Amino acid sequence: MHSGKRPKTLTGVAALRLTLLEDKHVKRCAEAAGLTKSEWCRRVILNALDTPPETQLLLSEFLAMRAVFLALHTEALQGNKLTEQRIAAMIQQAEAKKYAMAENRIRAFQATQKTMPDEGPVASGTVPGDRLDGSSTLIRQAVDRHFAF
């Protein structure tokens, strides 16, 4: 792993404590990005500062609605009867994950802007963390088939 070349000397320090699970998650994300844990955390913090909280809030609410919508349609396409309990569980799942989904989408978008500045925004596929469960691709395929134009 490498931290990349920095144009300036870094003198400030921001220390934080993580649970064992949080630390493992941060390490996995840093390794996936090919960065040290410190550099990955630095970039995440700086990117978060660049995104207005209003944008994060609106995106998180939109992604939660999208997740519930896709889950409802998947249940309907599979012929499952929707109960009040099942709908409440879908909403609860979306609520629990909406901020992480928004953060992942923002980070993915920022990465495409930095790596491909001349090509403009890139249409994204599945972004890790943007789904309610592991069946995101299945849901998208089912919805695409159902709403084919």
Task: Characterise the protein shown here.
By secondary structure, this protein is mainly α. The chain has two domains: 1-50; 53-146, no CATH class. It has five helices and no strands. The chain has helices at 20-33, 37-50, 53-77, 84-115, 136-146. Helix 1 packs across helix 2. The longest helix is centred in the C-terminal third of the chain and has 32 residues, at 84-115. The chain is elongated. The model is unreliable at 116-136 (pLDDT under 50).
Number of strands: 0
Let me know the largest β-sheet.
none
Number of domains: 2
- Following the backbone from N to C, one meets helices and strands in this order, namely HHHHH
- Shape descriptor reads elongated
List keywords for this structure.
mainly alpha, single chain, 5 helices, 2 domains, about 150 residues
Q: In terms of topology, how is this protein built?
A:
Blueprint: H1 20-33, H2 37-50, H3 53-77, H4 84-115, H5 136-146
Helix pairs in contact: 1-2, 3-4, 3-5
Question: What is this entry, summarized?
Answer:
The chain has helices spanning 20-33, 37-50, 53-77, 84-115, 136-146.
